Amino acid sequence: MWCEATQSWCTGVPVDSGGRPDSDGEYLELSPVEAATWGNYYALGDSYSSGDGAHDYHPETAVSGGCWRSANAYPELVAAAHDFAGQLSFLACSGQRGHAMLDTVGEDGAQLSWEAPHTSLVTIGIGGNDLGFSTVLKTCMVRVPLLDSGACTGQEDDIFNRMEKFEKTFEELIARVRERAPDARVLVVGYPRLFPEEPTGSYYTLTASSQAWLNETVQEFNGQLEEAVRVQDSAIVEADMVGSVEFVDVYHALDGHEIGAEDPWVNGVLLRDLATGVTLDRSTFHPDADGHRAVGELVVDQIETGPDRPLYATRDVVAGATPEVLASETA
């Protein structure tokens, strides 16, 4: 049993003689699916979570400077995969930065403006804009001179400095989410690899070496997120708290369908012809509907499999998740 093996959870969760949570105790041990679906679902994050690039946008979000939330985005697919007791609050927004989420806590329309203790699942994909991924990609593509591949990899120090700074931002973000939904499973969704695992040729002005470096950068950031998640979840266990923080590795989600493939699941270069000149569309290098389906399948797999430990929720909180209460806590 978990208590017998670790001796860390026992003090917080009353157990019977068999080492199982006491049926009359304060906490419920739930299956992974039960732990994710007894309440509401909040979907947070940036354009890779909002579905920018996947089309079929919710009309009110498909405006200049809007969030570009797609009906094909993985949060919509996750919400449809299981019978949630509550509803989806889809707040992920194109262009969102983690530090901006913290700066706008409690403000109307902000991603952290809610208080919803009867939330059973939160997904969050964040950090790409904090690292300046879009600027990095543009710099790699628009080089002067054109064949100067060093203009791409020369950004490495700046990126790693931003990654280091994001560590604290991420820690604070998870703390804020857990304040709002302490019994929830919080699934942190990483970023997919956009280019072939072993690039062999150029894509527009992106050389094979630049593509490989961009892949490595995404993988490095995912590794940072995964380790931060491990630390966060270990702290939950050690403190005998409910809920969880889990990482969803989607690095290989587009495997065989990357940019330049015969059947890509990610948008390549998309151009906008503006009065001021031609520029890259914001959906460039974002997963399309098929890409979100692939990411969504991995998120659902994590929901169904769960972490390598039991999952608990507060008995009274789960019992209080009535339809009326759940409806009142949606955004």
TrEMBL record:
Protein name (database record): SGNH/GDSL hydrolase family protein
GO biological process, one term: triglyceride catabolic process
Molecular function terms from GO: triacylglycerol lipase activity
Chain ranges of the SGNH hydrolase-type esterase domain: 43-294
PANTHER family according to UniProt: LIPASE 2 (PTHR37981), SGNH HYDROLASE-TYPE ESTERASE DOMAIN-CONTAINING PROTEIN (PTHR37981:SF1)
Domain of life: Bacteria
Species name: Thermobifida halotolerans
InterPro entries in the record: SEST-like, SGNH_hydro, SGNH_hydro_sf
One of the Pfam families matching this protein, by short name: Lipase_GDSL_2
Alphabetical UniProt keywords: Disulfide bond, Hydrolase
Catalytic residues identified in the record: 47 (nucleophile), 286
Disulfide-bonded cysteines: 67-93, 140-152
